């Protein structure tokens, strides 16, 4: 069995495929799940700690407004009709009683959630109750709040509102509402003597509104407790009453002002996040509870979905591994048999292979096959070079006889009409052109020689157009020394006379400028003031010229060698980086711009170089 496993690539492949699929994915799922759980937990704690702190700030701000409302008692101490003076001196007249009503009404309107105000004046032993915009009073102290002796003010937990013992004369109606009470001792300013007691009932609307922003109903719980464990607010009062004593006690045992801890009992397992609300008259705890079941629901569902998907994938992958292994090894064996048929004799192996499985045998045969392929590649490469050389020579052999006819006609006409030395000049220029053209020994020449040829060509054309032609040829020394293929400029200039210059447009102008645009980039510009090209035609031709491959396209009609052939020759001579642009000139005319990256080819500057 061991030998069978070692010598069989198929068995190895099946085992490795299954192991490489099952193990990494299973480990990845476990790591991802645990990491996601911890990330979710850390993110939840961090975000909710900040949220609870902001909620505590908002609650303290609201409760501070209520505290300030109770301190309105001490406004305008010197005014005999101020609430402080009325409590200290009593209400002996109808006017004083009306001022008492006005002061309590002002206090009640300072915070819209104030339900009613109870006031006891110890100096006159009289109790007052302001509710529903009415004021009722009765002798004696009808209500005694549970106040710590060391505190001047204290908040009572949420409870149902009541009448504070003042039943007669009755209010027109009384509706019991859920309120919390703010109790304050009214003290004599200089002596600290207790002048009375004030109790303000505040509806829990704002407490609930602020608290609702701090938890998600259905998945989180929020509670506000005092340090005695009394419930101020509960998002789920039923749950708090059912079994909340244990967790409430664990919250009260916390010594830090804020924090979080893990808690677990028979009905809850999760995180508690708490924040203290502290003031001289307040000592509350803001508590948020999140069960792990809810916290980890999304990671658990994601892991479950991934596990199901991976299980299906593993079944498919295991089946595919077996099938692929069989189908992968069978073609290898067939390939070996095919290679054996192709090999014809060169059996000297230069590659040492010790493996005895299918890959080892394939490697030996593949090495031998590659040797043959390399030979074929070299043969095809030489054939390609020869083909390109023949193409280049074929392009150079193209010439338009129409030009020679026009030149000879111009010289003959001039000789008949004038008979002067200009005939000699024309014939001399023609001779130079013919000698240049007939030189077939070199396929490349310095750019300066090509410019001389264009100079002779333009001199002849100038006589043809009755001196109605101006031309200018410029080239710096570095540009003139560059080796270029023969006959790359004259066809461009010839196109000007065939398609560009028209007598109706005035005297013709042709400019040829050659310069080194960069240290290794030759730029050639041929510009005229002829009719130019239609924009659609120019864009179509430019699209062909922009193609990077060197393609010899047939040229129809009497267009001569043509721009496409010139670009193809330049790319054969240099590289596919050669570019040709066509630009219309204003107000009319065309400019052909050729950019030739030389690429540091020093051999291109040697006039004797034969690239044919």
TrEMBL record:
Q: Which residues cross the membrane?
A: 304-328
Write one Pfam family the protein is assigned to: His_kinase
Query: What SMART domains is this protein classified in?
Result: HAMP (SM00304)
Q: Which domain of life is it from?
A: Bacteria
Name where it's found: Cell membrane
Q: Name one GO molecular function term.
A: phosphorelay sensor kinase activity
Which keywords describe this protein according to UniProt? ATP-binding, Cell membrane, Kinase, Membrane, Nucleotide-binding, Phosphoprotein, Transferase, Transmembrane, Transmembrane helix, Two-component regulatory system
A Gene Ontology cellular-component term? plasma membrane
* Primary location class: membrane
- Write down the membrane topology: Multi-pass membrane protein
Specify the HAMP domain's residue ranges.
Answer: 326-378
SUPFAM superfamilies hit by this protein = ATPase domain of HSP90 chaperone/DNA topoisomerase II/histidine kinase (SSF55874), HAMP domain-like (SSF158472)
Keyword set includes Transmembrane helix: yes
| Name the record gives this protein | HAMP domain-containing protein,histidine kinase
Source species of the chain:
Thermobacillus composti (strain DSM 18247 / JCM 13945 / KWC4)
